[in-house]
Amino acid sequence: MLSGTLRIENRKSLDGKVEADVTLAPGQYAFVPRGETHDGLALEDCLFLVLAKGGVTRNGAQEVEPDSRGAT
């Protein structure tokens, strides 16, 4: 995580096991096993780097516009 705060939620392993949510702040990182599906929620403007051997799949990815208070 380079800047901001990001929550990785709705995690499900390749074998269907539900995993705990993870919240990342600058300087932190998360290892996500191959085949895991999850959602990412930016809790504020963020900049992060993803390294994924074999690439990243975009399953139903969507952008959510913040409401008038800046919350989604």
List keywords for this structure.
72 residues, single chain, mainly beta, globular
Overview of the molecule:
By secondary structure, this protein is mostly beta strands. The protein has one domain (1-53). The protein has no helices and 3 strands. Strands 2-1-3 form a 3-stranded antiparallel sheet, with no helix packed on it. The two termini are 20 Å apart.
The total strand number stands at 3
Shape, per Cα inertia axes: globular
The Rg value, from CA coordinates, equals 13 Å
Helix segment tally: 0
In terms of DSSP E residues, the strand content is 15-25%
Tell me the count of domains: 1
Percent of residues in helical segments? under 10%
Strand arrangement within the widest β-sheet reads 2-1-3
In a nutshell, what does this entry contain?
This protein has strands spanning 6-12, 22-24, 37-42. With 72 residues, it is mainly β.
Topology:
Blueprint: E1 6-12, E2 22-24, E3 37-42
Antiparallel strand pairs: 1-2, 1-3
